[in-house]
Amino acid sequence: MTSLVDRYVFTALRRVPEQQRADIDRELRGSIEDAVDARVDAGQERDAAVTATLTELGDPDRLADGYAGRQGYLIGPELYAPWRRLTRMLLTVVLPIVVVVLVVLDVVDGKSIGDVIGTAVTTTLNVGVNMVFWTTLIFAVVERSGDAKRLKAKWSVDDLPKYQPNRVPIAQVAAGLVWPVLLIAALILQQFSFSDVPVLDPANWSFWWPYFIVVLALQAGYQVWLWRLGTWNRTVAVVNAVLQLAWAVPLIWLLNTDRFFNPEFHSFAQVGTESDVKHWLTVLITVIVVVGTAKDIYDTAKRGERTRRGLPTEVAGSGGGYT
Amino acid sequence: MTMDATLPGHLQELRRGTVVVASLMVLREPGYGYSLLETLSAAGFEVEANTLYPLLRRLEAQGLLTSEWNTDEARPRKFYRTTEAGDAVTDVLVTEWARLDKAITDLDTTTGSRK
User: Which of A28, A52, B81, B98 suits a disulfide with B30, CB 3.0-4.6 Å?
Assistant: First the structure.
């Protein structure tokens, strides 16, 4: 039978770099024997002394970590903050975009409502778990490669958000660019790729669909212009309102005069009575567009007015404001 | 009182690092793992074997200690001894310790708290 000491030493050595094993083996056994002898000299039974000594030495895996100079954590404090920032961004920004895009593709493809919900749930779980796993794995590898110090994103005061009313956050510019591009892509692709029968009325290619593409392109251009301008003012508010209305009014008009959906597209029938589904989709899209457009026009106008008057703008969640 | 819950953590923070200084000082005379453990605990340093043994190897890898196997006796033992570099580091650490001690003592008298 293998002795307790052997079992302890083998377990510890298993996780120690090979070239150090023989030396640590010899030294560790010596140290254990010294400690056991000391306990026996003090009047303890040998078996009890061995048990007590090994118990005091503790978990052999931890001892091995000590010998090998391994840290007892996956991601250390140096990398934890950037890891948290990246993970949070992936889960709150990238994940919803991926899920929405896939759900929209399913809907456009004429999948049943059950399939669409299934896609939403499985994508959220799959993509979410994958995002966290790969991010964590990469950070853990960096942590162990010893490059953590060099790779560490050096924080400086330049990284502080500007909180200036005349600043356009780059994230907003990016979102403002992605949205029109996605819509243009969806508009073109629904005609040619997703399904045999386009969802939207092909008759509108004579004027309205190209018109929407132009307006969306102008909205993307507006974002770039706003970013380069670097401030909100009355011109911005007016241009924004015109662009928003140029897109919202024809859209609502087309929807409510039954010229939006392709009359040949019948996949709605899978969800419920075709006229009902079309009716509710029309109401839903109309409400979203009206509310969204009104809010955007109001927000932009308000922001421009406050900036013009030099009033403070609230920093959400901080209770503070800035001018 | 939260002292019972937080005190061990503070004490550990404060003691961390003193084992290195003590080991480097003791090992100016060659010694092996268990003997050092005994010497340190007799001198009042609370150190555990599973911390000390890996620490000795780390200090050796850093060049602050050097080691030699002694096989003259029945039980072969690895003897560690503080190197010149180790001595220099010890001096700096001890000076720093003295400076901190003085700084804390001064702080105590200047703020006029009970002593």
Answer: B81
| Partner-chain residue, chosen from A24, A27, A58, that has the shortest CB–CB distance to B50 | A58
pLDDT tens-digit map of A186-231: 788 777 765 667 778 888 888 888 999 999 999 988 988 888 887 7
Instruction: Between A272 and A227, name the one with better pLDDT.
Output: A227
Q: Which of A20, A30, A69 sits opposite B76 (nearest CB)?
A: A30
The DSSP result for A13-67, as a single string, is HHTS-HHHHHHHHHHHHHHHHHHHHHHHHTT--HHHHHHHHHHHH--HHHHHHHH
A134, with CB counted inside 10 A (0-12, 13-18, 19+), is exposed
For this complex, say whether ipTM is above 0.90: no
User: Which residues of B, range 16-75, sit inside 8 Å of A by Cβ?
Assistant: 32-35, 37-38, 48-51, 53-55, 57-58, 69, 75
Res A103: pLDDT: 81
Whether the predicted pLDDT of A109 surpasses 80: no
pLDDT over 90 (residue A165):
no
**Bridge partners, residue A188, by sequence:** none
Model pTM score:
0.57
Residue among B77, B75, B29, B76 nearest B53 (CA): B77
The token pair that represents A201 in the structure block? 């009325």
Hunting for tokens 């609502």 — which residue is that? A252
Determine, for residues B78 and A26 on separate chains, whether the beta-carbon distance falls below 8 Å.
Answer: yes
What pairing do the DSSP bridges indicate for beta strands B77-82 and B31-32?
A: antiparallel
Q: Rg of the Cα trace of chain A?
A: 32
Q: What is the mean pLDDT of residues A95-105?
A: 82
Which among A13, A31, A40, A71 is the top mutation candidate for probing chain B, defined by the most B β-carbons within 10 Å of its own β-carbon? Answer: A31
CA distance A222 to A168: 12
d(CA A32, CA A38) in angstroms, rounded, equals 10
Residue contact A66–B76, C-beta within 8 A: no
The answer to whether residue B28 scores a pLDDT higher than 90 is yes
